[in-house]
């Protein structure tokens, strides 16, 4: 069980030489996800050595260009690379029509299927589940329909307490699957050995919450409660709370308030406005109310074991 | 009169860390044009200090992603920058619908008009003319409908030969406009002074031909004859002429053949396939039959006075 998050881009929309729009690569419990896909994401993937073929699921928060204008280029490249595996794209209603039209006029003939999962609910919903990971939406509040995403590892089976098990000659390998599943064991003399004696708690499932773009929205706190890692946009500092409100973005202070109220393990801020030359101010402002805060930077990797 | 061409990107489609898809910035006779707009073009414009607001005309050769997936991002950025001036976009039929749909779902509300000039002719046609420059299409042959573009300075008025003029006391400033327009002067004694005596030839109008992407197509030679500068794609070397034919691209040898037959002043090759690690081979191959050949590289500027 592990979680590795690679920041591919973390700046707001205005293009600058050393600014890259939002995109992240998440490895969680051996699943590989791309989150948002601003223009130039495929180049950032090459730069930071993200394996193109590993990714089967792409999650787009909203349809502003700095979060999705790189999608069609990436899909087109998958065609050039002769991809054959299905790819799943999650995002707001409208993403399918626009993406398919762009691919069609480019005559990008692909051998793979693109399966779109268009979102429109204003409630948090389960949108992906397999045997390793589940993904829920985090409804956000921005100028257009927007979702964050909560990625959570599936609960693991209980772990065998081999020291205690070895005290019972009668208990053998044939029992292990049942014991991991939480069952008690009944010995031949009728004695019941409680599961709690035979197992130890598995590691807590890890979770990552991605929240961009959004105004300060405290009602997401119950959804992301106790997440191990939270990325929350901080386009502005508190000195421009007025502008954050107007443009439906957050300040670094507000991101920290969400992190504190949700009791997350670590906060990452990003989506910095181009008006700020000294990015470290975002860290300093958030740290006043939430200690464990980091800055997102292209190429930076956040790992939790 | 001058011509400055800045290469913004010059590689073929497959993304690599140090590869940038086709885009060029052309200054010709005080007009400022963007030619093709692959993904990431706006970032390259920032890097090489191309003034966003100077550009009023964008010419797209064809709708493959590596030549136009950066267009919608650039137009969206013009909205963020509060552009108010019209912008003209020339390109194949289909470009308008796809671009407007992408901008619409992103809710990119712009104050400026985008005026699309959709092309579909297979003959060379005049598509732009003002008092400084004219632009003609160069019909190319690729897997999709494609045009190159020929940019030519307008003929300049004749220049005054002040040494000769000073020999005629009677000829003054009031006559200069007529003389520049090529008229003779009739003196008070009835003597006719021929214009050829009073003027010298103006500088030859400069021209730039952009040809990408295309298979070897000798029938473009009359259109680009005697151009001062020719960019011609060279995706492959002659060792892969088979692949060039199959994918409807050119070899460096073929680009040079076109340059030679058209008697251009200088050839620039580009659009190199990722399979070649040593780009200098493109220069060497072309130079065997056409001496004045250069390699395109991001940031390189070609100037003619």
From TrEMBL, chains A, B:
Its EC number is 3.1.26.11. InterPro entries: RibonucZ/Hydroxyglut_hydro (IPR036866), RNase_Z/BN (IPR013471). It holds the Pfam family Anti-Pycsar_Apyc1. Binds 2 Zn(2+) ions. The active site is at 66 (proton acceptor). Keywords: Endonuclease, Hydrolase, Metal-binding, Nuclease, tRNA processing, Zinc. Homodimer. This is Ribonuclease Z. It comes from Polaribacter batillariae. The gene is rnz.
